[in-house]
Design goal:
452 residues; alpha/beta; two-stranded antiparallel ribbon; 37% helix; binds flavin mononucleotide
Length: 452
């Protein structure tokens, strides 16, 4: 039998390779109980040292980028027992990380609804200069009235949010280009600091936003930051198709991921772009351990207080009553026969398949069947197989990885999954360059893309 590492003969020179990003959220990891795990510093939520260390672990694994989601002020289910999901301040964190890393891309979420374009343009280009061309802006419109309330507002309609988003991205890119690429002379002898005719106002006025400019920040090594987007609605396809070089996605099945990827690619074509300019990157959550049982036990330890809630959710997914007192028993033949996966939850079929393998209810839940992304709970080769299957099916150009616990989960991925992907020719051996644009093979762009 072939060893798992030799599963594919795919050659790194004949086909494109996948991208890998690391989800960097609250400093603990993606599972609710991560902050309480042995070995985890409970103060990681405010530890810039912890984020730097986690970023360095991802860079050791040659990840192309870090992804920091952000939903300023989204209300928590229970701060009494749960850590907040987001980072203290994504830009400050990335500024700290930029100084302690050399290659990895730095992608932060910035709302187009609750920021002025000038602020976004200035902060992201400053980060880009500071990091020598590694910044990316995940331009999203924000959702949720709890976020809007922090700005004294209600969440605008989708039409208004995306209308504003199209204008904001254009203005931001115009501001980035307003300091001409070759405008900075800094000649001490002649006394010429810059060519004033190449640093000019943009004077753009839209329906929602306007700005005069210029922005007094010269180009970085990659010119200007890379635009990302995250979303799955038709409006999201349109915004990303027009402006983005990468999409942070969420999909539970190959079919759904492929449909989303195609929708983004089609949208890019409508704007006269090459569809390969937009990379679709769905999420993957990981608990990597030497075998399935060890990984499941780790997940059980991580579940925290929400077990009862999860059992009741699993009942709805499977359409059968579940007895909490029999949580350590597998489903009976009668229960399996009566189960009807919910049409409203795309995870339900997978949950039923796991149940049919004979796992107890506790173990079914420990497989992550109600998590936000597909979950690998087992040895590294299972993650590599999942990634290979999706990548080769045209369902993904890469993955953003959410380890269960950052403290040791990033290293587990780097040591147990990355080498398999590299041996299969699916992932690069080393960074091709030093900028995020190079990591993504994104085309040169400075200022607005004249095609769109
Ligand atoms: C994978 C993924 C990641 C997202 N990350 C964020 C985020 O970090 N912050 C945020 O406010 N919204 C985030 N969103 C939400 C989107 O910005 C968007 O508001 C949401 O998908 C609703 O879609 P619509 O606005 O297109 O209707 C994310 C969405 C997806 C699919």
């Amino acid at each position: 039998m072939d060893s798992p590492i030799e599963k594919s003969n795919r050659s790194s020179t004949t086909s494109k390779q996948m991208l890998i990003g690391l989800h960097l959220g609250n400093g603990y990891g993606s599972q609710q109980g991560a902050w309480r795990m042995p070995g985890v510093d409970p103060l990681s939520y405010t530890s810039f040292d912890a984020w730097v260390k986690q970023a360095q672990a991802a860079e050791r694994g040659k990840f192309q980028f870090l992804f920091l989601p952000d939903g300023p002020g989204a209300v928590l289910a229970d701060i009494g027992t749960e850590s907040p999901a987001f980072n203290l301040d994504v830009m400050m964190t990335l500024a700290a990380v930029a100084r302690e890393t050399e290659y990895i891309g730095l992608v932060a979420t910035g709302s187009t609804t609750f920021n002025e374009p000038f602020n976004l343009a200035r902060q992201f280009k400053a980060l880009d200069v500071m990091s020598h061309g590694r910044a990316g802006w995940n331009a999203i419109t924000s959702s949720g009235d709890d976020v809007a309330a922090n700005y004294g507002r209600a969440i605008p309609s989708s039409e208004e949010r995306y209308g504003r988003a199209h204008e904001v991205v254009q203005l931001v890119q115009a501001l980035w280009g307003s300091w001409g690429k070759h405008a900075w002379v800094h000649d001490q002898e002649s006394g010429q600091f810059a060519k004033r005719d190449q640093i000019v106002p943009i004077n753009l006025q839209g329906k929602y936003v306007d700005s005069r400019g210029p922005l007094y920040i010269p180009p970085s090594e990659q010119g200007q930051p890379i635009v990302f987007h995250a979303g799955g609605s038709p409006n999201a396809y349109e915004l990303a198709g027009r402006f983005a070089n990468a999409v942070i996605g969420a999909a539970f099945t190959i079919e759904d991921a492929r449909a989303q990827r195609n929708a983004f690619r089609e949208a890019a074509k409508r704007y006269g772009r090459d569809p390969d300019e937009i990379r679709y990157i769905p999420g993957l959550m990981t608990t990597i351990a030497k075998d399935r049982r060890t990984a499941l036990d780790r997940r059980i330890q991580l579940t925290g207080s929400s077990l009862r809630q999860r059992v009741s959710y699993l009942q709805q997914m499977l359409g059968i009553p579940l007895d909490v007192s029999r949580i350590d028993e597998p489903l009976t033949t009668a229960q399996l026969g009566a189960a009807r996966p919910s049409r409203y939850d795309p995870r339900s079929n997978h949950a039923l398949n796991i149940a049919k393998e004979g796992w107890s209810v506790r173990d079914i839940l420990a497989h992550g069947v109600i998590d936000y992304h597909p979950v690998i709970v087992g040895p590294g080769v299972e993650a590599a197989d999942h990634m290979q299957e999706w990548f080769e099916a045209g369902a993904a150009d890469g993955f953003w990885i959410s380890p269960d616990v950052n403290e040791d989960g990033i290293d587990a991925f780097v040591d147990e999954v990355v080498p398999i992907l590299q041996a299969r020719g699916l992932f690069h051996q080393d960074y091709e360059g030093k900028t995020l644009r190079e990591h993504l093979s994104a085309p040169d762009q400075y200022g607005i893309d004249p095609r769109v």
